[in-house]
Amino acid sequence: QVKWKGKDLFDLVCRTLGLRETWFFGLQYTIKDTVAWLKMDKKVLDHDVPTEEPVTFHFLAKFYPENAEEELVQEITQHLFFLQVKKQILDEKIYCPPEASVLLASYAVQAKYGDYDPNVHKRGFLAQEELLPKRVINLYQMTPEMWEERITAWYAEHRGRARDEAEMEYLKIAQDLEMYGVNYFAIRNKKGTELLLGVDALGLHIYDPDNRLTPKISFPWNEIRNISYSDKEFTIKPLDKKIDVFKFNSSKLRVNKLILQLCIGNHDLFMRRRKADSLEVQQMKAQAREEKARKQMERQRLAREKQMREEAERTRDELERRLMQLKEEATMANEALMRSEETADLLAEKAQITEEEAKLLAQKAAEAEQEMQRIKATAIRTEEEKRLMEQKVLEAEMLALKMAEESERRAKEADQLKQDLQEARESERRAKQKLLEITSKSSYTPSVNSSATALPTDLPSFNLISESLSFDFKDTDMKRLSMEIEKEKVEYMEKSKHLQEQLNELKTEIEALKLKERETALDILHNENASRGNSKHNTIKKVS
């Protein structure tokens, strides 16, 4: 509305987002290439906002916390800071070394995709994601697939972290970067030397224009007595009166106003952190602790249900595999039974033929015997006829003997075939019995399988577990939560050491692929600081 003040518009945005930690944020706009922030007590349209419609404001973090984990209470606050810091790193407004960029990218992936699943997150799933600063990509002879492989290797280690936890881990790493939360302004000292002024949560810092990482001088907020400006001249008065007053000039009066706004806001927050929390903040922290405990219990419940579901699915798969195995065994037994029946039929047929042949031979032997008797009975008068008859008798006897032997052999063969037929029928009986056993087993298995297969797709099927949980936060719950927090602190120290080792390993691994000629001035400065063992905080202590 036309009569709205800055606070009215700002409050509307905060209510829309459900944001209560409003002191970190503001509405930013640009006027004549200079950044400005909407004043809360001034009408919106009374600001030097652009006259073109629609008027654009950017809802951004104006002030940064010293320790994100301790100061950012609401999940929405953490998420907004995560989005802003991530964008600043990708846009290279915050310098981030290559190995730390890969680690931060892995936490950003965890926040977006959840736990790593090799069946879902297949090669190339990060192809369309912007995860690394272009400076880092151009610095190494590495393909997108090689970067994805290294990001995924770390992403897989973050299993079990919820979105808010992954985003907080991202901020905890990012807050140690030298340019995190620093607003830079071009200034000149009394001698006319060009410098940079940095304003952040820790104090005021003076930089060389070519080195935004390492300040030349720092003024912590607790050592500053007074800050003021007159026209374009800005004055910093240290608490120690023995130290000279520091004066500098900015390019525009509007810039001095912005510097003073940031100084006042950061100083107020600096002092506020060192006092007891207000009632509102205490209430918010208590609610956040309860919410964290509730989410932790909910995650544990879901993890248990997921585990039970996975076990049920494994049991189902095992039963299905067993059923398939039994079906194969039944098929094989059925085939064996059919083969046994065919063999028995063949043997029976062969035995019948052999038996008929034996009967035929016996009949022929009887006929031969009758012929011999008839020949013997016939009287042969001449000697020659007698000799011939004796020869015929002898031949008939030999033939009868052969016939008898053949008949005996055929009878034995028939007996053997009958025995083989008996064995075949016995094999057939056993095969039928085994098939019956397998059929009885398989008839039981599908009932178990069907119960496993019939698992519903939605987790609330575990009614017993769901109904047994209680979210009544008693003292014992809070004590247990406190013990878990202490345990997490110890684990975090161990993880930090492990993390540093991993960062060094990655740095060593990709060092051989670096293109030295593409190193920026900030890359070189960072490497020099790292070789000297300088970090953001110990550097500020040295130059304070």
UniProtKB/TrEMBL annotation:
GO molecular function terms listed in the Swiss-Prot or TrEMBL record: actin binding
Keyword annotations of the record: Cell membrane, Coiled coil, Membrane
SUPFAM superfamilies: Moesin tail domain, PH domain-like, Second domain of FERM, Ubiquitin-like
Top-level taxon: Eukaryota
GO CC annotation terms, alphabetical: plasma membrane
Entry coiled-coil feature ranges: 482-523
The keyword Calcium appears for this protein: no
Its membrane topology: Peripheral membrane protein
Binding positions (a 1,2-diacyl-sn-glycero-3-phospho-(1D-myo-inositol)): K39, M40, D41, K42, K257
Family annotation (CDD domains): FERM_B-lobe, FERM_C_ERM
Any one Pfam family match given in the protein's UniProt record, by short name: FERM_C
Region Disordered, residue ranges: 410-429
Subcellular location, record wording: Cell membrane
Residue span, FERM domain: 1-274
Protein name, entry field: MERL protein
Annotated organism of origin: Nothoprocta pentlandii
Gene this chain is encoded by: Nf2_1
